[in-house]
Every structure is written in structure tokens, then in C-alpha cells.
Amino acid sequence: MKIYKADDYRGMSRIAANIISAQIILKPDCVLGLATGSTPIGTYEELVERYNKGDLDFSAVTTVNLDEYKGLTKDNDQSYYYFMHHNLFDHVNIPAENINLPDGTEPDSKKECARYEGLIRSLGGADLQLLGLGHNGHIGFNEPADAFDNETHCVDLQESTIEANKRFFASADDVPRQAYTMGIGTIMRAKKILLVASGKDKAEIVKRAFTGPVCPQVPASILQLHPDVTVVVDAEAGSLL
After folding, report:
1. 181 near 153, Cβ under 8 Å?
2. CA angle 36-74-197, nearest 5°?
3. Is 153 a catalytic residue?
4. Which candidate in 117, 138, 142, 149 is catalytic?
5. Which domains does the chain have, with CATH numbers?
6. d(Cα 85, Cα 79) in Å, to the nearest integer?
7. Long-range CB pairs of 72-76, under 8 A, 24+ apart, other chains included
8. Is the CA virtual torsion 172, 175, 178, 179 positive or negative?
9. 228 among known catalytic residues
10. Which first-to-last residue range defines the signal peptide (predicted)?
11. Choice among 65, 136, 142, 165 that is catalytic
């Protein structure tokens, strides 16, 4: 595991974008696993800027997103489909048919999870998987539990996650209670993993995830066992390392 500590959020975003850019340049038809949330936004801004300068070409890239709220339509401005198009897809030359997310409008959880897991496997898994880090150590929507979930599944969101996400909705009652997410096993099959974390409020969980014991109560701790993980934090998130 490699850990880089940037001075600030912008520096963290720049380092993360460097790593993703290198992946695209070295393998133009790579499969990128992508994440949502506030932390990766700066990374996506950097990638768009490099595309606009002519330094990056997304025309052969395929993407698979980590997760999606169950029950939200694609045009809902809180759906991850909407987020990804607003922050990245609408601003680069990635073909629409190469973009993949779980379908939050599919009510049959078993059917949708099997479809999405099968899709990821058919692509050979992600060449590089981008991750954020939840305050409770979740990656994707893999919440603290008694065991690591292996494959794509439908998860009941914990109250701490709902609380953290309610700022994006009109009220806490509007936050979906379930989501489709890649499983820990799906994430761990990615060839490379890149995790970003920023802010003082992430310092404690960063320390627990990457210097503490590997346990399903801190889902991100499993990344200690992956052969190619890069963690990029800003000074505040890395203050306890």
C-alpha cells in the first residue's frame, strides 16, 4: 500500500487525477471503476481540464460505477447517474454505450445484482477502481457488518450513512434507505485501487482503516490485503497517520 499526503484538497485531487490519467494513457481501452460523493469531485474536475487541453482521450474507456441508490430515476439530481454525468461524463468524449452503473429503477434486487456483477466480470473487472471513504469506513455502500459481502448486492443503509447524505436532499425522509453496490469481493478483484479522503473529519477512520486490524466492522480495512492500493489524503485526513 502506498500512501500520499497532499497539502490540501486541490493537491489530493491533482495526485489522484495523475494516477487515473496514467492508467488511461498506458491502456486507452481500460476499465475504470468510478465513485461518487463530494471527495472525488475535484479529481473529476482535473480530468475534465486535462481532456479539454487535449491531454486525455476517453473514447476507448469503459466505466463501471460502484453504486446507485435504489428507487431513484436517472433524471433525479441525487441519483449517481445524474452525478456522474454532471461531473464527468457530459464533459469528456466517453461513448454513452461504455458507461455502466447499477440500475436504481430495477425493483428486483436479485435480478439487478446478478446483471451488474455479470457485467463487471464480463469486462474482466476494473483495471483501476476509484474509492472514497465513509465516516464509518464504508467503501461503496458496503457498511460495517459481521462479514465482508462478496459480490454486488442490495444494502440497507445505516443511519450514519443516511445522516451523512441527507444534506444533499430536501430532508432526511427523502434519502433512499437502500442502494445497489459492488461487493467487497468485486472491489478487491480490481487490478489497482485508488482511494481518496479529505478533511479532518476523516482522520480517525483513515487511521483505523489503514493502520488498524482488518475486520468487517471497518470495511475499508480489507484494502490492506490488496496487492496494489494507493491512498491519497490531504493533510487533515492524514493528520493521524
Report:
1. yes
2. 5
3. no
4. 138
5. 2-219 (3.40.50.1360)
6. 10
7. 72/104, 72/105, 72/176, 73/104, 73/105, 74/104, 74/105
8. negative
9. no
10. none
11. 136
